[in-house]
């Protein structure tokens, strides 16, 4: 059980003709959480952000010290929100949280649906080459929730673990299978059958099993450099 910092953001220019709502700011009062996210929150590109399986983004405050070691004392890392997160906490990380974990936040009930796949917008936000790839390679990605029961969440509310559907499948384990031991057939078979995991991730596993190849990450990681979002 740990208290949360709650953040939301509006779509705003990111540079050139691009827009993003990655600049999340702490809120001072309660927010309604519905099936696709917080009422006061927005996403610029609904093809790849938001939706029921990515309704809420959680990023561990625990990682900020490691990023400061890696990148230096950037002002962006002085407070939560650097990674576009809606929820910031201490003492919950990818090593301890598993896909399918169910948490109570305020009066809402949420379930871990998938890890985050970082995109080029992080590179743009930090103005550091390959920042999105660094997030992916470190495994310090954060994760998403689906909303099982809508409700109201306020800053300072506690996040409480209620149930675990697949405790062996930590987010770190799934990250390792996708980005380190990328063609481990046994792990991919198990991931493809993991019902509490977002369908898109299960499809990645099935496609790798069938093709024997890893999908191309370049458009997602380097989109801003290649004119793709």
TrEMBL record:
Superkingdom of source: Bacteria
Domain MOSC: 25-162
Database matches in SUPFAM superfamilies: PK beta-barrel domain-like (SSF50800)
Origin species: Paracoccus broussonetiae
Listed Pfam families: MOSC, YiiM_3-alpha
UniProt protein name: MOSC domain-containing protein
